[in-house]
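Bug: token stream looks shifted between consecutive jobs. Job 1:
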Amino acid sequence: MSDTKTFWLSFVDRDQFLGVVVVDVTVEEAGEMFTEQLDRFPNARPGAEWFGAAVRKAWQHGCNPGGQVGCADITEHVPEDTPRYVLMQKDELRQRGFLGHEDETPSQHEGNAPDSARQDSHAGRAHGEAPEDS
């Protein structure tokens, strides 16, 4: 297993697409986040530290436009030439083949991470908060 994972973060605000950023997270960065999450979110799902570290990394690079964020681990699916730490808009995503040519809404593509890598995420759990029990 590699000690670095690559994440696709898709940002939306209500019905407005805000952009996508791809970030790399090291096992050390995830470990730091795990320690912080223990106190704040004792019921966090296993692996939530990676998501929290990915969001933090986007903030550190000035690539977090706000809104809700969806996250997918694309380590096994990311094209080699995909830029990191750059907030990409629809035009660039289309040019790179991540979106079709039709004008899609955020709910239709959620940033269009590869289907095999897509995960459902919500802003309320962005830092590892466990979902509420039904």
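Job 2, same session, no restart:
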Amino acid sequence: MSDDLEPLLERARSGDRDSLERLVEQIQGPVYNLALRMLWHPEDARDATQDILIRVITHLGSFRGDSRVQTWVYRVAANYLISARQGRVEAQGYTFDRFHDDLASRIKALPEFRAKLADTQLNLDHPVWVEDKNFDLSRHLYRIGLPSPGGRRELAEVCGHIAAVPLDRSKPVWEMWAIEGVADTDAHDGGTLALMIKVHHAAVDGVTAANLLTQLCSTEPDSPPPDPVDGPGDATRFGIAAGGLLRFLYRPLLLAKALPTTASTIVNTVGRARSGAAMAAPFTAPSTLFNAEITAERNIALAQLNFEDVLRVKNRFGVKVNDVVLALCAGALRGFLHFHFSFTIPICARSVVNDVGWPGSPTGEGFFGLGKLASG
């Protein structure tokens, strides 16, 4: 807005049509920009701008000159937009189409969700991540309804079936399922909606997944999407083969650099073996249902904890929340084995490091695994 709106407003209040049109031209752009920031849908912003301009025109007489015209217009627009946004949130609720559109606006900030694997027969190294130029959200976002009564058992069974289906590696390796009918409620009428996200571990680990969720979700019901983030880009078949050849030729140097660490590890392992503190030898674990042949079937179980109790344990022992959760899992597994097989396998949750990344993404981020160590 220009700084000379006061004379225009005074002449417009006196009936000067040209001054009124010039005033509207001056304030229309800033009002639309504000509406777009608060409503973040262009069509809604355009409709709101028209309503705000009408409100400004019909209330010119209420301007008393105790502030700048720009401030007065901004106040009128902000009051209208706050009410409109709150009313829209209350009126809209959940629909799958609206959820699809909101997710589409946030995918632009998640390059991991737009990247797919690319390879060629001439590549001597691992496949690479490239931007999916034909990305289609409808090939990743699905909806399903729970059978009645829609309880925890039904939810776990449906999630298990979803987890058992392999991801399609010709597209970005993730899926999201909107699960309706939880507890026999209607999500469109304020009922409970469950959301399951399935992502291949090659794309994200636990830390990366947590970071992605902060971009995917928000604490505000109508917050604008995060800023777009560039993806890994594209790669030709020749580029993939050439890059793989360079990395293949460089591999002996990497192995040479790893030799000191490897030798040190061997020495430490021999020392632990002599002292009886080493891990058990391969193929000597007792026979249980966990070390049988792995099938495609997946089962999911759900448990609910009071987070305040978890925090109390965390603070009492000076550890992290992850440590408490992993200790619970280790204890549950140990109890299961003791109850069903009448023996105890000492286990310990430990952290390991993932050194595999995709071009342009952080590497060396941690995730958690289970090792056969003393658990006390």
